[in-house]
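Need tokens for this chain, all 250 residues.
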Amino acid sequence: MLSLQRLVAELDAWMSPASFQDYAPNGVQIEGREQIQRLALGVTASATVIEQALAWHADALLVHHGYFWKNEPPTLTGMKGRRIKRFCQADVSLLAYHLPLDCHPEFGNNVALMGHLGWDRYEAVDSQGLIWVATLPVPLTPTALAEHIEARLLRAPTVITAESIGPISRIALCTGGAQDYLSRAAAIGVDAYLSGEISERTTHEARELGVTYFAAGHHATERYGVQALGQRIRDHLGIEVAFFDEDNPA
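Here are the structure tokens for all 250 residues:
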């Protein structure tokens, strides 16, 4: 058993959420029972993931995408109200870490994704760890790299290929909805940039900046950080953890 207070203290010590200007609160978002023996993990606190966690008899759910985002209606009604009611009825806590989980140099979404893709030569190119650059083990054509990404993530990426692009050796990366960092990636001098989402303007930017863009899915690129964090929790704090997922093509 581990107290909720100690679990949050350990997580905050590892990830330093106070150093980020985030879009939602990090840490405890819904407070349930005091003692934690089983901690469920997920990318997003969707209704399906909540029910999977409750069926496993979790004491708390830890996710990357929680609730109470900026500019979101504050009322607990509709879909959000139903989700939060399930936590309260079951006396189960919800914990969420957004940017701190993206950026962590050991178990963040960016680092965990690069590890899952088999890339072990990488470095952060900004102070917080939002953008990373990896050197591929072997240079790949855009088509070959897309096939590799699909094989590892089980989802075909959308690829915007810049004209006259040669083999890709250096690729910048930021998981999730970070397509607007494409210009920053181009300024670094990489061959390609990978994120989760794509906007209409992204196509023009990639072509005109000469950087091949891979949109590999917001959900698909952010499945691995919370699992790496869960392993750290299990190894260092000795409680049970289990990852629950929901198919999401976006």
